[in-house]
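Possible regression after last week's pipeline update?

I re-ran a chain I had predicted before the update to compare outputs. Posting the input and the new output here so someone can diff against the archived version. Not blocking, just want to make sure nothing changed silently.
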Amino acid sequence: MSLQTALQRSSVVPVLELDQVSIAYGSQPVVHQVSFSIQPGEVVALVGESGSGKTTTAQAIMGLLTENGRLEQGAIRLNGTDISHWSPRRLDAVRGAQISLIPQDPSSSLNPVKTVGEQVAEILNIHCRLPRKHVQQRVVALLTRVGLTHPELRARQYPHELSGGMKQRVLIAIAIALQPALIIADEPTSALDVTVQKRILDLIDELRQECGTAVLLVTHDLAVAAERADRLLVFRHGRVQEQGATAEVLRAPACDYTRQLFTDVPSLARAAPPPGHVPQELAIQVNGLVKHFRLDGTGRKTHPALDQVSFSVPRGTTHALVGESGSGKTTLARCLLGFQRPDSGQIMIDGVDFTQLKGEALRQFRRRIQLVYQNPFGSLDPSQTLYQVIEEPLLNFEPLSKAERYRRVRDLFERVALPNELLSRKPRELSGGQRQRVAIARALVLQPRVLVLDEATSALDVRVQAQILRLLQDLQQELGLTYLFISHDLATVRQISHSVSVLHRGVQVDNGATGDLFAMPGSDYTRQLIEAIPGRQFYAEPPKVEDAVYEQ
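New output (post-update):
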């Protein structure tokens, strides 16, 4: 920043200023003496793990704390005016007009029984007195501005008729409708594919430059923050650990916590091949896999979910399936697990053609290949203890004695680095990372040879994600496991996988060693995915392929 720019900025009243803000839920303090400001046109990112106080701080700014939340001390100034003790009715006048929110989950943030146009029009009707015709024109103009195709049609559609990226664009249209001075973007792209994420972030940046809108970006994705923010505030346990210009914090973080956070971010970390050995035999062979889904009741029209997909995975290595939503990743995983049958093609697991098995033979063979789901919050039975969760597959498959079952469950619990005293707890008493460790233990209790990991780290904070990835690599080394790692996060794929298949609309557009694919992608689509990785300008090039352990 030039001296002239710095002097100009210092003379401008901040759009937002927090001064020694402390917040509590009931009698429990959760945010402690937080101070920062945002200038017009500036992007400031609040980063940190879940529970660090980021979202609570953002909610306090909007006056949207839960009933038991309260501001204990400090001031929140909007354009120089303290709004921290304004009534909800008075705050309604500035929400949408001066401060707007882009929420995290587009699926739950839109009203399912109102059209998209009605929901965009609502913010205009609240704050402006315009003829109906002018409101309709303004709605179409806003939907056009955020890049939605056929805006007149979209205005008549309901949220369930739109993709996740489209719904997020609708929320942005609502947020910018009145050209507010400040937009609070709360994890605005966490549920989106990497290419859609880039388009959404580019759109927010364009609007910021055009209108001089300030942006408060609340995120646990440090790569996004590093790439998009002018300044960073690192939160931990409700306190600001450090703050400063993004480039300076990245170059020389002042505290150990920030250094560890950056170390754990896949796209900011130095590339290194995952540990392993040169494999001799194949654990998985997929040859010419085809799967169609019917589009109507007659069955005459079909959609090709998979079209001649082929790849092989050496034993003891990790093969990643990457692609956007709708690319065919999950369909392929369901075929591998025997939940769906392909229309043609072959799936060989340990030399056995999985597609030819039926009945009890298929059920027993599933012991060799197990699944770890994406969401550790929804994949565990809330009524069971953790011991029961892990023991259940043994009751279904193996006639073991009670003592042997207890020994195996305890051994696995220790192997995934959980203390045995947790075995009597229920899933709700655990953190997200602990739940995912339990899910991994449950998948391993039948001693499978192959694990399918379906977005198994995408719902986790960066530090917890790093811990789970290290655990998976340790287990692979110890047990000789083969992983099929399904993900849209190419930065994580680059860190953990030996080989990669890239799917696009059911077609395999790339396949090969991870180092090769990142160095020289074979398709424009793969190149676009790699270029969309947030923070990619900060990481080193991956090692040469001859340094990796993968052999095809």
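Follow-up from reviewer: compared with the archived run. The CA atoms of residues 335 and 341 lie 6 Å apart. Marking as no regression found.
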